[in-house]
Amino acid sequence: MRRYKFQPIRKDKDTEVQFLSRTKYPVIEEQDTDVKIIAKYGDNLTKLAFDYYGDVDLYWIIARRNKFTNTIYPVIGQELYIPTDISEAISELNKLNRI
Length: 99
Hints:
The protein has 99 residues and is α+β, with helices and mostly antiparallel strands. Helices cover 26% and strands 14% of the residues.
């Protein structure tokens, strides 16, 4: 996945200034299959996404599941839940962003 895949370039009607639109992310609900881990020194959401999904661009799934808003660094000792079935989340992302 490319980082800006869901952010088409828009143009302001009045000023003609171009900008990237915002990506809409789905809510990630708790599932019985989620893996529970305890954050340790050096963990961040992109590293965890690579470890569990093989793709750092999927960090947003872990962030949304754990209600992170503006950081990718969990607190050491924090419980994190890693969704294992991500197909529905990716499908919903595509629907929300009309891909």
